[in-house]
Amino acid sequence: MRNTGSPLTKISQHGQLPIRIVSPAFGHIVEKDGNYNPTERLPYYFMVFMLDGNSRYGVDLEKFDVGKNELLFIQPNQIRHFPARSHGNNYYKLGFDEDCLSKLPRQYPFLLNPLNQQKINFTQAAAIRLQSVFEILSNLLRTPDTEAELILAHLNCLLTEINTAYFVATGKPADDKLAKFIGFKVFVENNFTDHPTIRNIAEELALSTDSLYEIVKQYSGLSPKEFMTNRLIMEARRRIYYGERSSVKTLAYDLGFNDPDYFSRLFKKVTGKTVAGFFRDLS
Q1: Assigned domain for 95 exists
Q2: Count: domains in the chain
Q3: pLDDT at residue 86, as a whole number
């Protein structure tokens, strides 16, 4: 039975799994006039793999040009801006959510984006392998009642290939320090509006505060406190940008700040703009 709790199931190409693949010749949804929204806060994982041509996507407030043998991936809760015109000449787009991910046999650290790189480059050999798996998945999804195990097996292969390419320049993700940094990112993602202390996080990860500082600085270039502050302000920018434009006081309280004035000062310190100025720029 389809999991109706997932937003992706509304457009899923499979009866049991929340997953969708789109290519130039397969999977497109015809948008009715007035229903197309080029900006979306994603509730699921999204990837676009470019085989030929190029395209430009926005992720949160950054622009990314995606060219041949490159893959852009977007995490849940990030804001995606569709290309205004071209999608490239040949590509695959993939969407799946946490429910689908939970059925796979392993974890894929790249999905947490520990190195803060949304785009991945593939060698020609790896790109050919990736294209082959995308094509197999597309063919499987053309039949809605295909065995779920077959789709999951090939999705596992696809994500393993992408995970390997993501970490190719930095070594294996099994490195203990990187594993701890990933643990830090997960903890922050799940608790940032609670404003945990550095000591609390270090204890959660079985690290000293000095070791935590060293690891976070190595992989992000930021101190743990700066990292959490940036995450809070990014969430504020996402909510403002995507139209969740309540008062500054309400936004501050929603993000766990007891003092809206302090939140406003912090927002300006990080972004260089006041909250009101950010509103105006988006008007």
Answers
A1: yes
A2: 2
A3: 59
Percent residues over pLDDT 70 in the chain: 90
Distances (CA, A) of 108 to 160, 166, 167: 7, 10, 11
1 domain residue, yes or no: no
Name 270's Cβ contacts closer than 8 Å, sequence gap at least 6: 229, 230, 233
Q: What is the structure's pLDDT at 166?
A: 93
Residue among 23, 19, 24, 22 at smallest CA distance from 6: 19
- This prediction has a pTM of 0.82
Query: Are 42 and 93 within 8 A, CB to CB?
Result: no
CA atoms within a 13 Å half-sphere pointing along the CA-CB vector of 67? 4
Mark whether 182 and 160 lie in a shared domain. Answer: no
Of 143, 166, 189, the position where a domain reaches its end is 166
Q: What is the mean pLDDT of residues 165-190?
A: 82
Q: Would you say residue 145 lies in a domain?
A: yes
